[in-house]
Amino acid sequence: MKNFKIDDKSKFLSAVLMCVLLVGLAYFFGYKKLEDKATRLNNENRNLETRISSLETYYLTEEQNKKDTETMTAAIAQVFSAYPGDARFEDGLFEAYNLHSGSYSTLVLESIGFAKPTAVRTIAAETVTAAGIEAYTDAIIFNRFDVDYKGDLTYEGLKGMVREIANGNYNLAIGKMTFSITESGLIHGDALISFYSVRNAGCSYSEPPVIAYDTGIENLFGVNGTVITETVEGN
């Protein structure tokens, strides 16, 4: 086997090539890192420019946005102002009094039927809070409370009763009305009326004006007798 001898020039050329290769690898990997960093910085810069542009737009329209928000908030409050915060059984009873007055006192009630209040529409709490309106923080619930009034009245009384439903103090809707003329000349039937209310929207509720009953005497029903109570054994 022959021995090959590498001369000094070949050694020098090999060393030069090796250095060039090492420098090239170092440059490639170093450049790659710099390129990745530059790309990241460019992306961050674009995001900052977008954010600055958004803030600038908000700043330029801030006053108008405040006015629009105030207008929208007032409009929402106006809608809710038409509704009470609740509708209860005593409201259904008091409306019977109003219907009697509206019918020119011709309504003679046979019965009043109450249904259980139900939620007909709910605005989720997430939607409410996302709006960012300080006055509203919980889920807003629209409730309906149905009351059925059955009895007799005159034709003119029926028209007056409908006017009371439409123009009275309560927010009412007629669900169903069924009336027919009787042999006596009166109109007999029933009206299903819905009371609407809104909960968690800042709507106020006022109890109907029920006059307190004055007993007048100590023993209202005139009951005489001795109250017998159970005694504990040993006493």
Description:
The protein is of the alpha+beta class. The chain contains 5 helices and 5 strands, in the order αααββαβαββ. Strands 1, 2, 3, 4 and 5 form a 5-stranded antiparallel β-sheet that branches. Helix 3 crosses helix 5 (155-167). The radius of gyration is 42 Å and the shape is rod-shaped. The N and C termini lie far apart (131 Å). The mean pLDDT is 80.
Task: Summarize the topology.
Blueprint: H1 8-60, H2 62-80, H3 89-102, E1 108-114, E2 118-123, H4 125-130, E3 140-153, H5 155-167, E4 172-181, E5 187-199
Antiparallel strand pairs: 1-3, 2-3, 3-5, 4-5
Helix pairs in contact: 3-5
Provide tags for this entry.
5 strands, 235 residues, five-stranded antiparallel beta sheet, alpha+beta, 5 helices
- Rounded mean pLDDT is 80
Q: Largest sheet, if any?
A: 5 strands, antiparallel
Q: How large a portion of the residues is in β-strands, by DSSP E?
A: 15-25%
Q: Please provide the ordered H/E string of secondary-structure elements.
A: HHHEEHEHEE
Distance between the termini: 131 Å
Unreliable residue runs = none
Count of helical regions: 5
| Gyration radius from CA atoms, angstroms | 42 Å
Structural class: alpha+beta
**DSSP, total strands:** 5
Helix content: 40-55%
Overall shape: it is rod-shaped
